[in-house]
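2024-03-11 09:14:02 INFO receiving multi-entity request
2024-03-11 09:14:02 INFO entity count = three
2024-03-11 09:14:03 INFO echoing inputs for audit
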Amino acid sequence: MFRHLFKLIWNKRKQNFLFLSEILVSFMVIFAVFSFLTFYYQNYSKPLGFAYKKVWSISYDNGLLTKNRDSLTIFYDNLYKSLKAMPQIEEVSYSGSNFPYANSIMTTGLHLNGKRFGYVNSYVVGADYKKVWNITLVAGRWFSPEDAVTKNKNFIINETLKKQMFGNGDAIGKLIGDYDDKEKMKIIGVVQDIKANGDFWPAGNAMFTRLDTGYFRNNSHILVKVRDGADATFESQLYKFMTNTMKNSVEIQHLSEMREAKNEDTIIPMVIFIIIASFLIINVALGLFGVLWYNINKRRSEIGLRRAIGASGSSVSFQLVTEAMILATMSLMVGCFFAIQFPLLSVFNIPASVYIVAMLLSVLFIYLLVFACSLYPGKQAAGIHPAIALHEE
Amino acid sequence: MLKNYFKIAIAVLKRRKFFTFISLFGISFTLTILMVTTAFMDKVLSPDYPDLKRERSLYVSSMEYKNTKEGWINRSDVSFYFFSHYVSTLKNVDKMAISSNPKASNAYVNNKKIVIAYKYTNADYWNVLEYRFLAGKPFSQKEIDNADKVAVISEETRKAYFGDASNVIGQYISADNINYRVIGVVANVSKTVNSLSGDMYLPYTVSTSDYNKPDLMGPYNAVLLAKSKADVPKMQKEFQQMMRRVPIPKDFDRVYSNADPFFSAMTRRIAGDGANNGKTRVVTILSIFVLLFLLLPTINLVNINVTRIMERSSEIGVRKAFGASSKTLVYQFIVENMILTFLGGIIGIILSLLAIYLINGANVISNMRLTMNLTVLFYSFIACVFFGLISGVYPAWRMSKLNVVKALKAQ
Amino acid sequence: MIRLQNIEKVYRTDTVETLAINGINLDIAKGEFLSIMGPSGCGKSTLLNIIGLLDEPSKGNIQIDSQDISSYSDQKLAKFRNEKLGFIFQSYHLINDLQVLDNVELPLLYRNSSAKERKRLATEALEKVGLSNRLKHFPTQLSGGQRQRVAIARAIVGNPQIILADEPTGNLDSAMGNEIMDILINLNQNEGTTIVMVTHDENMAHKTHRLVRLFDGSQVQ
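2024-03-11 09:21:47 INFO inference complete, emitting structure
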């Protein structure tokens, strides 16, 4: 039966050209949508890696502070103590400007045995950074005061970077070259990935270095973890305190709000994209429905004939639905040929699994679409009376 | 003749209501999206409050150092020094509006936190841009020279900070723990005019950072106003000549800064750099997206039209037999298709108005109010014509090739 | 009026050549009412289509009203059909979306006449076939005989010199068929219209001036 139907359709392929191209273009649109959704979902389902809910960032202009290193060290030591002393503040850490959800990126390169690893997010962190964010260590240890005086700079990397560099092997204690491979740094710990760019983007490679007194001159961000009672009144007190201390402009932000803004940057375009794609597909569905309906009406005599020579009503419906599915398959083969290029060429450096899943989902979606559109016309065809249909000729 | 085509077109549409519905749905929806996008582009690209002298203006918003050998780039906004020291020497520049990019500060009022984005500006800022003052007036050169702590605030900020108080002129607003005396209130600026929208405007002389530092990079940008539209190219050329005299900083071998017309300034920010204004890239990518978007509805419509034509083969045969030439029939069909497309266009306009109303209400982009004006309608009209032609030509050609004899065979 | 010389029509597919019309010579005088008869597949419809300029002969010459139309372009042929010919088909081929009056007006749309003029001529034509009380009806609301009468009105509305009728009574019962024949005979006698009719019906054929029999593409008898 399939061979018969396939021959039928192959002979009519020129007539069905428009139908085929519509399915092909629809498939590409759906493939794009599912690729995005799969990519975002894959990232979304990975663990967050840190706790942001009670964290505030204090950003300030350090232009008017002393440049003297020793005075600055004393100043920041005192500031740390004052902040820690406030009953509503639980943890305090100084930080580089690219903390999670901040709109700031700092990347560098690392060398291992001559091989270069690029786009490594480089975080400069204070001693209590781990406590502020509740970061999880999966190997080794966090920074301790002795790390200030070691021969090689001690630093920490994240899981993704560790996998890239060492696979399943051990990373602790290994020596890594810095961005121009002049200095060597030693890995003392590996942390769980932190999704610093929002819930929908991969954590990427990350390394953490200790914020030492030499960095104080550049420091312009403080991260605090507040307790449950910290409200707007406390915030305005904290604000006054900071502006008095820095004698300059200060901004306090809640990480939860920054997180929402980051996620919205991803969600809003995605929603718009999906709305437009849905309307396009509804359009296509209605069009396919109409075309299939018309085609079946045109073949009334053929259908009457088939019924006359012994085909049952349901086999006629089955035939018509199957024909539509075969047409869809022809288009999907071409579509898959184009789609498979994406994982093969690793487009946008996105893992192949995203594309494969998206392709399978899209194929399934198109089949369902064509099936749904051909079901009703197919049933109508089954109701054609052979005598009437043949007599009309 | 046209009346007959119209009658037949309506009759055909009424006969196969389902096909008509599909076609109208597809056309109106596609055109709605095109119209809303056009309204958005129009909002962003057309002169908009307060930047109403766009055709006389050039925009300077970035400074770039480049080391072509190593490939390092350092890009940032511009320093005040660059404008006051270099750009002010240009003879073709009539006035210069210098302002810093909005910076956020916090204010705590009634146990609520308000974020106030403030800008530092010079005196001519108020002469180049046309802000609408709901109360008070802007600060002048005198207040700048005295570094008076005065502020012009937006209507939105006034409401958020002072609530329903009727007259806020002379009252004080506190930001970053500094008190400023309010001397003016201006109407809100849409965030689509990004670099000019702010909650509070202060004289640049009260800024704590050193605006006289002989550095080329800083947090400022400028709008250069020429005396007339014809002077703009002269102004641009003079600016480029001036750039050749600007000293190149250590570690780099090139310095770039550009005085661009509005659209080029925008594309440079999105897809360009110091040397290339990115206009072709942005326009190409946008066009590709639009064409791809139109592809699916067009194929769909062509498909439906071909189907409808095949249905009318008997009628076509009769018309040919009674003397209609192929050309006449093609013409008839294209007219029918245009009627359908324009019907869809009218529905599209109604839907667009609804969509715009909803978008404005949801305040998706702060203070942005889209409108349906003549420009938008004009482009929509063009889109309708275009769409109608493309989706009608192929089916019409197919129809004209119909063999009369076959079509008239006894059924 | 109509002169066919050595007309041949060959249908070609990839592998088969069918000779539908084989060397027909026919002269039809002005005002004549001619019937063409023959078994199925003998080429009579093909011949009618050729006379009606709807199809081109593979070989041979056609002259209508002393004009050699073998070399006319599509545009010229269309104009010629519009002015000089009228068609009646077995399955009427009315446009179901248009009212009766608009259906009859159809040929006049392709001339330069005003709406008023078209309405007047169409109403007159419908009067001639006895349907003046059905102007605003749709074809689907009429009986078979009434529909064929509308088709005849459409065929004569432009005052053509020649009418080509392909089995005009084929879908009608004998009573209605006779009515239609009466209208055609009337037209031929009172207006002097040349009529060429293809038919299966011996009785109808015998009411006409001349009968031509075709068999396998050639004229017999």
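2024-03-11 09:21:48 INFO post-check: The two ends of chain B are 30 Å apart (CA to CA).
2024-03-11 09:21:48 INFO post-check: Residues 326-362 of chain B form the longest helix (37 residues).
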